[in-house]
Amino acid sequence: MAVGMAKGGLSMVGMTAVPLMSLTMSPVLAAGIMLPVYVVSDMGGLIAFRRSFDWRVMRTLLPGAIAGIGLGWATAHLVNDAAIMLIVGLIGLSFALNALIRPRVSGRKTPRWGAGSFWGAVSGYTSFVSHSGAPPYQVYVQPLRLSSRAYAGTTTFFFAIVNLAKLVPYAALGQINPGNLRISALLCIPGLIGVVLGVRLLRIIPQELFYKLISWMLLMISIRLIWVGAASFAF
After folding, report:
1. Element (H, E) at 2
2. Integer CA distances (angstroms), 19 to 70, 94, 214, 223, in order
């Protein structure tokens, strides 16, 4: 439902999906189950925003993002569940704190290859590890001050490409298999319900208040993951 709500307009809510699942299962398993749900959910966004994206921003981000995905694939065997749990927790914690205390961005910047490549690589890596590519992506794109529709469209197209690119390495690592796909297919149902719910919540709840509530939720989940991950290393 969190992924569906993200595709329904509440983009930050999707950040809670893998951390929340990681409380009860391996974060690697959680990421593998959720990837097909992301890919299916992306389809509606691609149709809705097919003419509303900024290609200049995409060009600066995508090369680095593909490199970041490759780095995640190449180093996957070096980290265990506890390490990934810590990474997921730290990513979530940094994003939640950033959302809660960072001042509003003023002024407007232009797309740059250096910054775009760096944040694209970080976004690609964190997206590969836990589908948490949104925080570094937003650090780069928010100061560009795109129109709301161009921002939504650029975000949709960027992560649709990133998610498709992750399918091959995920399959090679065994994270996409018949067992996972059966669960993913079932999760597409609440995902679709989440899309409808996200659209309706945007009309009812002030967006700023909703994002604060989600940020606090993500903060608490992330602290729990960091605690459990650190305890696993300690023992």
Report:
1. helix 2-7
2. 22, 13, 13, 10
Summarised one tens digit per residue, pLDDT across range 54-81 is: 889 999 999 999 999 999 999 888 877 7
Q: Report which of 145, 18, 142, 144 is spatially closest to residue 92, judged by C-alpha positions.
A: 18
Tokens 């593909």, residue?
66
Taking the chain, what is the end-to-end CA distance rounded to the nearest angstrom? Answer: 35
> What does the chain come to in residues?
235
Instruction: List, in sequence order, the alpha helices (H) in the chain.
Output: 2-7, 17-21, 27-48, 55-74, 81-101, 113-130, 134-141, 148-172, 178-204, 207-234
Residue 166 tokens, joined? 């992750």
Determine the Cα–Cα distance for residues 16 and 156; give it in Å rounded to an integer.
18
pTM of the complete model: 0.78
For 152-192, the DSSP string reads: HHHHHHHHHHHHHHHHHHHHHTT-S-HHHHHHHHHHHHHHH
Among the listed residues 203, 138, 196, 129, the one whose alpha carbon sits nearest the alpha carbon of residue 166: 129
The DSSP 8-state label assigned to residue 146 in this structure reads -
pLDDT in tens, 145-204: 777 678 778 888 899 899 999 999 999 998 888 989 999 999 998 888 887 787 777 677
Which residue in this structure is represented by tokens 């990934």?
A: 84
- Residue spans per domain, the chain: 2-234
